[in-house]
Amino acid sequence: MPVPNDWTLEGKVALITADARGWAAVFAGALAEAGADVVVAGHSAEHVESAAAAVRAQGKRSVTIVGEFPGYAETDAAVDQAVSELGSIDILVNASLNQLGKPTLDTTEFEWNTVMDANAGSAFRWARSAGRKMVAQGNGHIVNVISEMAERGLTNHAPFSASQAAIQQMTRSLSLEWGTSGVRINCIATGWVELNPPPLEEQQKELLVRYLPLRRKGTPEDIATLLIYLSGDFSDFTTGQTIFVDGGAMAHA
Amino acid sequence: MGVLDALNLDGKNVVITGGGTGLGLEMVRGMAEAGANIAIAGRRQGPIDEAADMVKEIGRKSMAISTDVTDTAAVNSLFETVLAEWGDVHVLFSNAGIVREDGRPPLWEITDESWRIGIETNLSSAFYCARAISKHMADRGSGKIVNVASGFGFRGGRDNYMYTAGKGGVVNITRAMAVSLGRYGITCNAIVPGFFPTEATNATSMSLPRGDLIPVGRTGFPKEFGPVAVWLASAASDYMTGEMFIVDGGGLAGGMAPTGYGPISELA
Question: I need a labelling partner for A111 at 20 to 30 A (CA). Which of A143, B126, B169, B226 fits?
């Protein structure tokens, strides 16, 4: 103490998607520290396994699912596996993103479709598959970890920023659709977050870092406790929101 | 040492205005349980004394200081008193505000005095408090300022001018303070509550809260603000500034009942 008593995920089962950024290991470890057992899904065995190892290091159970999840059949099967191996699905964390920075005049139709599907399409499929169980059990928490490009534009990022805004708007609509079914869904929008940012002095050589009100890049640890909050029953009056953790970038003129 | 340890408020001194009742009281409880010492300011001595006693029962230091947050001399004196006693203020919660607007008259009947009191209480008070303590925080190189806004800070409320304008001002002064004070190690964020029945809202002439018009199907419980207050007061939120932490049961995500007040009953 005093870690407040209500910050607990004890008895809950989370499913988190992992990508090559390596953030999922921090998030999965944080969920496990708060008491959750965690299923990790993703296409990179290395990153899925490192997230699962972070769960086991907290003494909690983990399940790994390595593969592609292009349709409802795959996400439904992964959720079913979570329920059969760990007993339920209470928390879904969409923490996997496909980033693309490219001038629009060079962007192919395939690239647009890929980015939209890997971000918005994937988040929707996972939410639908987990939501099926959550609505039935009358309880569930979904957290989509997105980029603040959902709200702010960026040169050469038209498809990516559109895909982030799509997740944000899907989140608002699902919060209404499932509000009276006990399912909560929110976004955490990150600014300039890196797994291992360079030392402060090095970071601040970059003009854009000095422009940030807090003058540093963020880390996944900076959002880990917010993820726990949004995953727990003690946040049950918070839904449909996008909470920005970005060093003040969104507040700036 | 895990990520949850960042929520520890041991040794942190918090000043909260409007901390004797409603949401403020539950934020006081949550932060005291997480380890904070709390100075509670409010207009009426009775409720803030009781809140201070509660903090002492939890095992932390507390003070109850009767303060009119629209009186700049009183606000300055509040912080001078706390600094003289405790030496440091780490966190400011500007929570005082008035929901009630007498009779909610049409625009053309609002008096200068009503406008002035509404803006002073809902907006200027947050400015007065931040002005009074930000230099101390800047000199130390750390501090957290939390304002309390409202869904009406984002959307209009019918016949609801001072509250809507004041809270809209709170939203944007929060951003200005975040952008300006970040370089001194100070973060500034706002809590945006949806509809929480409290003593203050029960006294309003606004339409009755309708849980069935809120996406989650109910109004909020004041105790749901404890964990939010702890998160915003603690090192766990150190990378967040200038942001709005919205806890409204989904109200702002939709369009029919922005903050939980029922537009259908108002249309009648």
Answer: A143
